[in-house]
Amino acid sequence: MSAEFFVWGNMGSYAAFTLGALALYKGWRVPLLIVWFFAIMGVAGNAIGHLIYAVIAGDVWFPGTVTSLAYWVIGPVLILRLWRESRAARGSRSDHR
Fold first, then answer.
1. What is the 3-state secondary structure (H, E, C) of the chain?
2. Model pTM?
């Protein structure tokens, strides 16, 4: 993968995350796919990926490894909260039928 492709891919992801955050702030539920993508790939995937990169590189101080350690805590917490919120929203929708 070229560095240019990597940068454009990341910038596209950040733009989608930002648009998703703005839509959620406005109260739109449509962009939850973007939120789930961020939680799974942007947080949990980052934590796993940087650990794998460090092992492959044979360098504990591989760029992003130390900062991704927080994602090992944040990722599961974020995914659990999204899961609970999705279940609660689904339950409240079935109550209104």
1. CCHHHHHHHHHHHHHHHHHHHHHHHCCCCCCHHHHHHHHHHHHHHHHHHHHHHHHHHCCCCCCCHHHHCCHHHHHHHHHHHHHHHHHHHHHHHHHCC
2. 0.63
